[in-house]
Design brief:
This protein is mainly alpha-helical. The protein has 2 helices and 2 strands.
């Protein structure tokens, strides 16, 4: 699975407190290792040609 972010994501990410960054990093690792993990609550968003997760 390919994960992409908007450039604005990184601008906001850099402004987060370190504790929140660590939590975000931990959850991103979980997403990469097991996208179906029950603690990850993503919803599919349908676009014209692309299927994206939010």
């Amino acid at each position: 699975m390919i994960h992409k972010t908007a450039l604005s994501f990184w601008e906001y990410y850099e402004k987060l407190p370190i504790e929140i960054k660590n939590l975000a990093d931990k959850n991103f690792q979980l997403l990469k290792n097991n996208p179906a993990h029950p603690s990850l609550q993503f919803n599919r968003v349908r676009r014209e040609l692309n299927k994206r997760w939010m």
